[in-house]
Amino acid sequence: MTSICKNCGTTVKGSFCSHCGQAANTHRISTHFLWHDIQHGILHVDKGILFTAKELFTRPGHSIREFLQGKRVSHFKPVSLVLILAGIYGFLSHYFHINLLSNNIQIKGSGERFDEMQKVISSSSEWLAAHYSIFSLLQIPVLAAGTWLFFKRAGYNFIEHIVIHSFLTGQRLIIRIILFPFFYAFNETSTLRTVERITDLIAFLIVFWSLYQLFNTVPKWQRILRTAGSFIISFVVTLVVLMIIFKQLLGL
User: Fold this and answer.
1) How many Å apart are CA 175 and CA 171, to the nearest integer?
2) Which residues lie across from 16 on neighbouring strands?
3) Which in 28, 115, 223, 242 has the greatest CB count within 10 A?
4) How many Cβ atoms are within 10 Å of 6's Cβ, its own excluded?
């Protein structure tokens, strides 16, 4: 059965136009059309973001390896995944005034200098929440450098390691979004730091499992040691950069 493409006028044989890619069968715009557009265009629910989220918590290493090998049609794009999830988490943190630096900076004291430092930390936390997508993206090359250095023999180039850590960053963001009610419940209390640490521990264990599963061609104990080494390098670099930034902000 042939038809004429309503977009470019090309004769269509099959379900899609070979020239512009538009579907041969189009319908009048209706409520069903709008709902499908929201699903497909914004969240890509049909085999998109929900499928990728499921894979990242059931068979993360295997699914990422398959994506790198070319099995991609069902997955949500990794960088888009980070942007959307970081945007959601950043919005929640900004709207509910969650202190995102509770696990990294803790100051004690009193007086004018103490108040000034508290203001800097508070404003920095608000800025971080408002720009969490940028912060998440900036972390990815640092994390990618760690696994690229320790798993060179696995055969993936640096850009592929960026894709790997884009998925794993999305994985950590999903954990934070799921556990956000605890951040809200314990905000502005000493328990918030504990919640932050437990969340980081859960994320660390899942990411470790993901990388262990991904690099399955590397012997077992080498995988464990190399994954740990990549984490240490990435953590040290991130910590040094953060310390330099906040020393400048706090005037230390």
Assistant:
1) 7
2) 23
3) 223
4) 12
